[in-house]
Amino acid sequence: MLKSSTFNLYLETDKGRFIYNTLSKKLVKVDEQTYNLLKKQGDLNKASQYITLCETGIIASDTTEMNKLELEIDEAINSKSLDLTIVMTNACNFRCVYCYQPHNAQHMSQEVEEKIIAFFNKHVGDYKSVSVSWFGGEPLLNRVQIVRLSEMVKYRCKAHNVAYMGDITTNGYNLDLETFEALVKNHIFSYQVTIDGNKEYHDKSRPHLSGFGSFDKIVKNLLDIKKHSITRHWDIIIRMNVNKENIGLVDDFMDFFNKNFGNDKRFHMAIEIVRDWGGNNQIKEQLYELGNSEEVKKKENVITRYNKHGNAIRTLELNDIMCYANKKNGYAIAPDGSIYKCAKAIYEADAAEYRVGYIDYDGRLIVEKDKETKWITPAKLDSDCIDCPMKVMCYAACPLNRVKNGERRCNKYLISQFKIALRNRIDNGDYQM
Question: Which of 34, 137, 205, 276 could form a disulfide with 30 if both were Cys (CB 3.0 to 4.6 A apart)?
Answer without folding.
Answer: 34
